[in-house]
């Protein structure tokens, strides 16, 4: 019985990391696209309200995109440092954000 509970827990953690990996990869690719397409270009992204039925914290800074979900950190490195308008963004689950290229810096704006 104990082995089955541990196995189920391991499967759940793997699924959680998979969903987190998809989100950090999509956001990294989106920011690269917005940056490459130049001044004035923008794209929107809607964050899921939960990852694998768990709450999470998403942070973006010059190092990359980080998700902390259920005590697991998932990370994707940005292709270039110093492309963000602010040093750090903390995005809220369930909200839509617009990523805008302003003078070759990416501004992240919560959509209303």
Q: Give the distance, in angstroms, between the N- and C-terminal Cα atoms.
A: 48 Å
**What's the shape?**
globular
Helix/strand order, N-terminal first: HEEEEEEE
Detail the poorly predicted runs.
3-11
Structure summary, number of beta strands: 7
What is the percent of helical residues? 25-40%
Structural classification: alpha+beta
As a percent range, the share of strand residues is 35-45%
Strand order, biggest sheet? 4-3-2-5
* Integer-rounded radius of gyration: 16 Å
Mean pLDDT: 87
How many DSSP helices?
1
Largest sheet features:
4 strands, antiparallel
Please render the helix and strand layout as text:
Blueprint (H helix, E strand, L loop, with lengths): L1 H35 L5 E5 L9 E6 L2 E6 L2 E6 L10 E4 L4 E7 L2 E6 L2
Antiparallel strand pairs: 1-6, 2-3, 2-5, 3-4, 6-7
How would you describe this structure to a colleague?
Helix content is 31%, strand content 36%. The N terminus is likely disordered. It starts with a helix and ends with a strand. By secondary structure, it is α+β, with helices and mostly antiparallel strands. The strands form two sheets. Strands 4-3-2-5 form a four-stranded antiparallel beta sheet, covered by helices on one side. The longest helix has 35 residues.
């Amino acid at each position: 019985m104990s082995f089955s509970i541990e196995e189920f827990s391991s499967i759940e953690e793997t699924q959680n990391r998979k969903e987190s990996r998809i989100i950090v990869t999509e956001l990294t690719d989106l920011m690269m696209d917005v940056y490459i397409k130049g001044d004035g270009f923008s794209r929107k992204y809607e964050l899921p309200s939960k990852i694998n039925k768990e709450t999470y914290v998403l942070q973006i800074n010059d190092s990359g995109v980080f998700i902390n979900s259920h005590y697991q950190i998932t990370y994707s490195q940005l292709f270039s440092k110093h492309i963000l308008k602010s040093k750090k963004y903390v995005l809220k689950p369930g909200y839509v954000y617009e990523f805008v290229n302003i003078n070759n810096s990416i501004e992240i704006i919560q959509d209303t």
